[in-house]
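Marked as duplicate of an earlier ticket. Keeping the data here for the record.
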Amino acid sequence: MNKPSVLPNNPCFSSGPCAKRPGWSLQALSGALVGRSHRSKPGKARIEQVLDKSRSILGLPANYRIAIVAGSDTGAVEMAMWSLLGPRGIDALAWEAFGDGWITDIVKQLKIKDVRTFKADYGHLPDLSQVDFNRDVIFTWNGTTSGVRVPNGDWIPDDRQGLTICDATSAAFAMELPWSKLDVVTWSWQKVLGGEAAHGMLVLSPRAVARLESYSPAWPMPKLFRMTKGGKIQEGIFLGETINTPSMLCVEDAVDGLKWAESVGGLPGLIARSEANLQAVRAWAAKTPWIELLAADANTVSCTSVCLIYTAPWFRALDADGQTAAAKKISSLLDAEKVALDAGSYRDAPAGLRLWCGATVETSDVQAVLPWIEWAYAQVAPANG
């Protein structure tokens, strides 16, 4: 098979950090308040822009609080778990690496005893009907490493007694989130809007705030996690007064991404872009006999982290190490040709490909990379494969 002639304009298909918005350049950061205090009047105003635009685009309820926190999405989830978990039993869901990590933290670090875990293999969801919402529930909305998302929020009751803690880092700005069913939501700038890393976003419902003000964890609380003082929430954290110093370069980049999001139609436009990218991959996989989507249920396929597995008999006949080696060869060829950078599957996931298809990726680039995957596959597959 000859090499394709059309190259993607942007070969960045990494699932984090993700592709910058179309047309991005360093000029977008020219107005960054470098050398200025984040507590100065203009510095705080820029941080407030991130909060206000995020709230507006995502359609947050007026009584939900939003903050910038340290440590990316991981820091935001840890902050929520350490601050809120303990007074009720916990149902923890995992169908990929990050959900599994939250279970490890709950059981081995916080050492909470009353924990039920619901796990599923890569490509599948656990049985959501078994979740007890009289307990606190923690889950990822979209499995970044498995390409599997929950289809909607219908499985979450409105009259729940426990809190719902949702890691939405690869879902926010690309999928509809039913805010009334979510008490804690986290994400990072480095995913759907292609921002720079290290900063997390934390959203709290009034129910989550009530828990914060009525419950004191038994374990020591690091300063970065402390959201209350004297039994009351520190409102300043949710008004742009970050607990630690944020990078004003990253803040400027976040503002730029949010302005771009507004320019493409806000949340509906962002969702449409991601779904169009998924559809391009889905249609190609449906007619390609040696590859398929990792997600077993068509209703749960992610429109951001689209995971693919090789299904040819020769590939399936290999042992796990052989499959990993063959998949890495294909990914390495794509990387060497600079047509799909960092597109290999997650290290713990089944061997295959993972194409980031979030809103900053152009559908034309997705369509351009698919023939290159066919070419790379042909270089690795046996002649009769």
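See parent ticket for discussion. The mean pLDDT is 97.
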